[in-house]
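Researcher: Quick sanity check before group meeting.
Model: Go ahead. Protein one:
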Amino acid sequence: MSTWPQYSGCSALKQTQSTSTSYESVPKTTASAPPQDSDIGDQQTCPICWSQAKNLAFLCGHQTCSDCGKNLKVCPLCQREISEKIKLY
């Protein structure tokens, strides 16, 4: 005798079995961090274009390259208004 309610064309037991079968067929993957060597230059690379070095700072503390930052009115990282731009050397 089943304790599951029976509805026309639907059975909770059938749904459970179907779900576990599809879960078992999903391949298992593991996440891994990127190689440490790739992170060395990322701290000095512009977060907008990812091709030039950061050489422009805003009062919020975030930095970009001068090409990307010259026309910005709002910091792309924290959304604060940019009131001053400081050239870094």
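Researcher: Fine. The other one?
Model: Protein two, sequence then structure:
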Amino acid sequence: MRIQRTLKMLQRTDFAVYVMDINDIGTDTNNDTDASTDTNTSANTNTNNNANTNNNTNTNTNTNTNTNTNANTNANANANTNTNTNTDTDSKNDDNDYLEMAKLFKKYNIPHMLVINKIDTVSQEQVKEAAKKFKDAVFVSTKDWQSILALKDELIKRLSEDEKEPPIVGDLIPYNGKVILVVPVDSEAPKGRIILPQVQVIRDCLDHGIKSYVVRDTELESALSDLRDIDLVITDSQAFKKVSETVPETIKLTSFSILFARYKGDLETFVKGVSKVDELNENSKVLIAESCTHNQSHEDIGRVKIPRLLNKHVGKELRYDFKMGHDFPENIEDYDLIIHCGACMMNKKSLQTRIDLCMEKGVSITNYGVLLAYLTGILDRSLEIFNLNY
């Protein structure tokens, strides 16, 4: 596929395949040869023109004939010069297109593969030259089935390498450790199931031999009495205040959202970004970004609870914009603070791209869990498990 140079495309790209026609690859050798040939042609033409004009002074007919002939010769020489120059410029531009795109892939942490096709239309020498210029490229021809199979194998190999992900909680808790997951059941909770972050944490615990106990916030106190040697309590961010009052200080506490801030984003950047809250005023503009497109309710955390708590903390009515799914604005510099959800419906690269854009524009960004921990006064406690301090 061909990747368009748009911000939204880059935000949604997990892995890029850039396809280049081998006939579009420019070579410096051809440019030098063409330039020399054209210069010599022009020089010879001008010399002949002067000679003919001087020798045929007395013969008007011959003078006109020679002048016309020489004029045509010059016109043809110039036409060739323009044709060669344009061809080489196009080739160089095609090379530059890829090099510019490769810089963007690197900037936004997007792994990519360069595929050079139509190799059956050029000589083996040209293929070797292209291989020297683009060492990591994969060369294919639709007329060579083996090259297509090799492309598929290479693509599978690179995608498999990209699939390796860090643990969510498995590196924080020892084998055979105990974790309590606090899952409030309110009007926001889906019927008949639990939400994706909770499912993923449970699976990560299973993968690493960690015992997980799932309770509602209303049964947390009795669960703490039933269990001993608890390593960590993980709560839904909305219940932070109540849970922090219930869980003893001797037991570490954090939230699903903060875990995902580390797992999919950049926890340290989110922690730094939350300090912007104390600089907000009535003229401040806040963007609340969610990765999914769920239906909102009167208890919606992003559109109701966070604005309410933030306004109360600042003591002013702030201005808010809300974006969902892939609808992330390009004018992020217009905002004083961006508050992102836990990004359970996004991949790590997509969220990291958004963080990088904010850093590039000098805009503070944080996430739901970090913000709610800060607003309830327990941010330091919620970061203890990560050996971080606010």
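Researcher: One line on it for the slide.
Model: The chain has 14 helices and eleven strands.
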